[in-house]
Amino acid sequence: MRKFNITIAALASASAIALTAPAMAQDASPQAAAEDANSDIIVTAQRRQEKVTEVPISITVASQAQLERQQVNNLNDLNRIAPALEIQSAPSQNTGGGGSIRGIGTQSFSPGAVASVGVVVDQVSQGNANISDLFDVSRIEVLKGPQGTLFGLTTSAGVINITTNAPDPTQFSGRLRTEVSDQGTAGSKYGQQVIQGVINVPVSTTSALRVSGMANLRQGVNRNATTGDWNDVNRYAVRGRYLWNVTDDLTFNLLGDWSKGSAENGGDFFTFLSNTPANTALLNSCGITPGEGNQDFCIGNGLRSRNESWGGSAQLEYDAGPLTLTSITAYRKSETSTATGGSIYRADPLASTLRSGPTASNIRLFTQEFRASSPSNSTFEYTVGAFYSNQKTVQQPERFTISVRLPNGVVIRPVDSPGALNEITDESLAVFGQGTLHATDSLRVILGGRYTGGRLSLDRTDAGNGAKSFQILNVDRVSWRTGLQYDVAPSLMAYATASRGFKGGQIAVPTAPLLPYVVQPEVPMSYEGGVKATLFGGAVLDFSLFYSKIKNFQAQECIVNPITAQLVCAQTNIDGVKTRGAEINLFGRISDRLSLNTGFIYTKATYPGGFIGNDGSNIGGKQLAYSPRYKFTLSGEYEQPLTSGLNGFLAADTIWKSRIRYQNTSRTEETFRPHWTVGGRVGVRSEDERYSVGLFVRNLFNVNEPSILQSNFGSGLGVIYGPQSFRQVGLQLDAKF
Hints:
It is a single chain. The N terminus is likely disordered. It is built from five helices and 46 strands. It is mainly beta. It is globular, with a radius of gyration of 25 Å. A hairpin with a 4-residue loop joins strand 38 and strand 39. The strands form nine sheets. The chain has a 22-stranded antiparallel β-barrel. 6% of the residues lie in helices and 56% in strands. 50% of the residues are buried.
């Protein structure tokens, strides 16, 4: 508690200094300014700046103002901004961010797997060397459906397109914002202190440097009942961006970011939801009470994991007259390590123990993209280009053991696998193009395609016997997109598109001595129709119908061996998975005082007919795991003048989800019930928005929605909870100068 009080004091002092600093300039992003003025919302969903109402793709846009009022501080928070988007949080499993759109995503322990939902930050594909922290962000666009034509092979379900705030050569400015809460205070189930800062420095009349950073310190959500300590989960990050308008025609951007994090005892990891009466008594003896919302584990010897990542890009854009030429060169690296072994059950009294040994992994990603784009006012608008990527993943051997203590006190070890060294290289080269023909003033024709050639390889060395194996998967695929869009009225556009996406294959890496095997590429065929309208002078209404059938859907099936109690996860292809439904979104300013982002989706994402689940039951036609059939989101803020220089605000943040299945089974205990998650914020800000203070609550009713739920876990049910699973109450401060 003393550590927490020192942190609070430091944050409060820093905020007070910023609040009383002379107001030199406001640090408002172009997107926030557009929202405030009820202007058109601009996006880059087709690799050029366009009004969101003119883009024939279903898009949900979250501005900087919305992201901050919903306290979206990392990728795991993004499921609150769009009904079509879900983010699953599980250590070592979230490929490329762990997102799913319209029920389609990638959950895999395979180190060579790629994501169904791509994450792009400032035009750079993140691959599996992904950022996790979100700060100083101008806007986030959630693009639904295959985006393989312009964004590449990791976007078979959609794209999370993130744009950070650009440097401003015209003014010096800065900002400091904090969010603080304490476990047990005002009903908070965990403690967290977030501080974010930014400074913008003009270097010349044509260039500027912008540096932003953040610290995110969390106590919980898990507690070690043996010591009484809450798990510390801490992250630090910094980003720098230099913008130079070299001439009227040439722009240079240099971007770099670094982040570092650590987690005690596995961080947000498994706790027991239920167990057998005998095991429950053992768990009770060390302070664990299995049940919904259980945050406790008990181990004497803990572990600490660390991760560090950094990356950078150099971007040139040149207006060459009839064409705009763009070059983006980027490199990213991510490293993760666990210094000591750890207990997967995290329960010392149990007779059976699963332990993983120390290990480390690193990912290196190099990408190069060239694009040429026509002027936006052309009869035929087009973008053509080439893209190269090389991603290498090295996974060090990780020993896995199962120990069983017999009634006579003898300990046997039925499983003792030393693991293997895995080196995965994923290399691809693509050429692409997409164009829009303005057939008439109202009718436009869309046609695009992308050819991708690549090579995925795995070098594997068994740490036990030194046996080597080598696997190669060559890819040679074409993805495409075609459609029509029509301006029904000045503020109403309709469109219909068909597209075939593509996601690269996997080389599954089972526990040694089992040999690797190939999982085929995922190929969706998707159809979408929709309308977009401008309402209330600036808000956007986005309605869409969609249907997609996926060939070789890449799935992961996890079961627990009833003899050894070993969790066995196998990657596999499922042919004939379908997703179809309808979605409606409304986002933007409804009036000068009210901003609103709300949406509802019906997604019928199902297994193919006759599909047999892990429990032996027929779940053909049933909803896919991790995909709620219905989801509703609402985020809004109402502002009311209180005095001549002070405004009050009231914000709401609400999600409703239907029942969620967590495994490929028909067991009710492996689902979570329909539920609401409600939050909000109330406070005051200055009329010029230079400072504000507010009280916030997330998950007001403490609804314990799991991130992961696993049956046959230590003869019971195991569950992973994240921060979204528990109530948080705290104070929010914001100052600009």
